[in-house]
Amino acid sequence: MSRTIRLAVIPGDGIGPEVVAEAVKVLDEVAPSAGLTIEKTQFSLGATRFLSTGDVLTDDDLASISSHDAILLGAVGGVPGDPRLANANIERGLLLKLRFTLDHYVNLRPTTIYPGVDSPLSNPGEVDFVVVREGTEGPYVGNGGAIRVGTPHEIANEVSINTAYGVERVVRFAFEIAQSRPAKKLTLVHKTNVLTFAGGIWRRLVDTVGAEYPEVAVDYLHVDAATIFLVTDPARFDVIVTDNLFGDILTDLAGAISGGIGLAASGNINPDGAFPSMFEPVHGSAPDIAGKQIADPTAAILSVALLLDHLGVPDAAGTVRDAVTADIATRQADRPRTTSAVGDAIRDAVAASLAR
Ligand SMILES: NC(=O)C1=CN([C@@H]2O[C@H](COP(=O)(O)OP(=O)(O)OC[C@H]3O[C@@H](n4cnc5c(N)ncnc54)[C@H](O)[C@@H]3O)[C@@H](O)[C@H]2O)C=CC1
Ligand SMILES: CC(C)CC(=O)C(=O)O
Ligand SMILES: [Mg+2]
C-alpha cells in the first residue's frame, strides 16, 4: 500500500534550484520502493522572489508550507552585500522564520568521511559523528538592537537566548541519539569559561539529563578547542551537542574536513511531529558558482536520505547513502562533472541497486 507524502519544495536562490533538482530526481527514483508517493508543491521563495514582489514569506506562504508533511529546501540568500537586499533579511525573515515557527529545535548534521573522498586531513581515521545543533534559540533569535547607527558612537548588541525548556529538550534528544550509537559518547561544545551564564545552563542541563543516561560518556570542550580537534582528531567525536551559533560554525568546518561543504546534509527536525521537518544542505546559495552547473548536489541528495529516515523508511535512506558512497568512490578531481551529471549518476546507482 502506498503512503502519500506532501512535500513542500523550496529551491530558493543561487545554487539552491540546481541542487534541489538533483535531490528530487533521486527521491523520485527511490520513493516507490519504500511505498511512498511524493506529492510536491513548489514554493518560489528567496531573494529572487523578494526582488520581484517585495515579499519574503507571507502568512499564506507559511500556512501553506505548514500544511505539508515535510519540506525540502535548497538555500536562500542573494549575493552578500547586494544593496537591493539590504532591508530584506532573507535569512532571518525566511529561513529562521521557518525554523522558529515550525519549532525545528533539533538541527541534525551528521558527518562521515566517505571512502575515497578528497579530505584535506592526511590521516582522518574513522570519522562518523553527528552534530545536534539547537535550532530555535541562541544568538539567532533577533534579540538585539543598535543605537546611534552609523555614527562613531554606535552601540549594537545581539543577545543569546537560552531557556531551560529549549536547552533541556535538545540535550535530551542528543543523549537519545548517543545512547543508540555504538560509541555512546556525547560532547558538549560551548564557551563556558567566558559565556558563564549561557554556558552555565548548558553545562548544568547536560549534567542533569546525563544522569538519566549512565551508559553515555560525557565530554566537554570549549568551542575554540573543538575546532582544533575537528581538524587534528575528528575520530574522537560521536555526538556533539551545542548551541545555534557554535553549531552553525562547527558544521561548516565539519563539511570542509569531510570532503567539502557540497557533501554536508542537514535536517531541521521537529521531533514531536507537530510541524513538518525541513531538510536542506548545510551550505548556502553560493552565488560565486550559481548558474554554472558546477555545484555538488550530494549534500542535497544526502538531505533526502535524512528525510527518508525521518519518514521511517531507513532502507530507502540506506539505498541513497549507498549510491552516494559508490559515486564518491568514482570521483576524480581532474574529471569534474556537472551538477546534473552527478545527480544522474546517483539516481542511476539507486535504480541499479533497486533492480538487483
Ligand atoms: N540554509 C541556507 O539557506 C543558507 C544560506 N546562506 C546564505 O547563502 C549566501 C552565500 O553564503 P556564503 O557565506 O557564501 O556560504 P555558501 O555556503 O553559500 O558558500 C561558501 C563557499 O562554499 C562553496 N559551496 C557551497 N555549496 C557548494 C556546493 N554544493 N558545491 C560546491 N561548492 C559549494 C561556495 O561556492 C563558496 O565558495 C548568503 O546570502 C548566506 O546568508 C548561507 C548558509 C545557509
Ligand atoms: C543563514 C544562516 C542562519 C543559516 C546557516 O548558515 C546555517 O543554518 O547553516
Ligand atoms: Mg551555516
UniProtKB/TrEMBL annotation:
Residues flagged as site, Important for catalysis: 140, 191
EC number(s) recorded for this UniProt protein: 1.1.1.85
| UniProt GO BP | L-leucine biosynthetic process
- Principal cellular location given in the protein's record: cytoplasm
- Which InterPro entries does this entry report, sorted A to Z? ICDH/IPMDH, IsoCit/isopropylmalate_DH_CS, IsoPropMal-DH-like_dom, LeuB_actb
Q: Name one GO molecular function term.
A: magnesium ion binding
What pathway is this protein said to act in by its record? Amino-acid biosynthesis; L-leucine biosynthesis; L-leucine from 3-methyl-2-oxobutanoate: step 3/4
Read off the SUPFAM superfamilies from this record: Isocitrate/Isopropylmalate dehydrogenase-like
The transmembrane segments are none
Q: How is the cofactor bound?
A: Binds 1 Mg(2+) or Mn(2+) ion per subunit.
Q: Which HAMAP family match?
A: LeuB_type2
Q: Which family does it belong to?
A: Belongs to the isocitrate and isopropylmalate dehydrogenases family. LeuB type 2 subfamily.
Its job: Catalyzes the oxidation of 3-carboxy-2-hydroxy-4-methylpentanoate (3-isopropylmalate) to 3-carboxy-4-methyl-2-oxopentanoate. The product decarboxylates to 4-methyl-2 oxopentanoate.
Name this polypeptide is given: 3-isopropylmalate dehydrogenase
Which gene does this sequence derive from?
leuB
